[in-house]
Hints:
Layout: H1 13-18, E1 22-31, E2 40-44, E3 62-67, E4 78-86, E5 96-104
Parallel strand pairs: 3-5
Antiparallel strand pairs: 1-2, 1-4, 2-3, 4-5
Amino acid sequence: xxxxxxxxxxxxxxxxxxxxxxxxxxxxxxxxxxxxxxxxxxxxxxxxxxxxxxxxxxxxxxxxxxxxxxxxxxxxxxxxxxxxxxxxxxxxxxxxxxxxxxxxx
Length: 105
């Protein structure tokens, strides 16, 4: 176990209805290429300097993104589509996970 108390997210019925559905999101990339390469990153609703990890918002503003094709890092706002999976119980992952993501031009 993690040896500390963990809060688990609760999701509205509207969010639960999107679980497993294809959605489109816009935001800024937070690269994690030291972990998995260019097919895994975090998409933030806020620019990097204001993101959840940097102190400007909460965990509801970020999404883990897994893509089948590499998506090159950019500091510009991007748009991606993929399948949303909500994560109610794994504290080692974010609350929102976007699978099979594709960059939209």
